[in-house]
Amino acid sequence: MAQQILDYSRLELRGDAGMFFEKRIEYDGNNNPIYIGYNRHQNTATDDESWFIVKITYSGNNPTYYQLPANGPQFVYSWDDRATYF
Asked: I need a surface site. Which of 12, 20, 47, 52 has the fewest CB within 10 A?
C-alpha cells in the first residue's frame, strides 16, 4: 500500500480555521517551501514558543517527506529555532 503524502504547504484549513492567523514559510534555492509555520495569533514574535512547524524534504522539486518535530504537532515551537527540531 502506497503511503499518502500530505502537502502542508497548500494546507486549507476548515472548521476551526479561524484559529490560524499567521503563516510563515522558508523556501529553498528552488523556491520550494521547506519549513512552514502556523501560529494562532497575529503578529506573534518569531522567537515565541507558540508555533506549529512542518518540514518538507524533496527529491528534485518533488516533495517526498513531511516531517513533524519529535514532540509532535503542537503549538510549542519557536519559528526562529525551526531547524533544530528535526
From this structure: 12
Other beta carbons less than 10 A from residue 25's beta carbon: 12
Q: How many CB atoms lie within 10 A of CB 69?
A: 18
Cell of 33: 517551501
Residues 53 and 18: their CA atoms lie apart, in Å, by 18
Rounded mean pLDDT, 66-75: 92
Nearest residue to 51 (alpha-carbon basis) of 80, 18, 83 = 80
Domain residue ranges in the chain: 18-85
Rounded mean pLDDT, 46-54: 96
Backbone angles phi, psi at 33, to 5 degrees: -70, 125
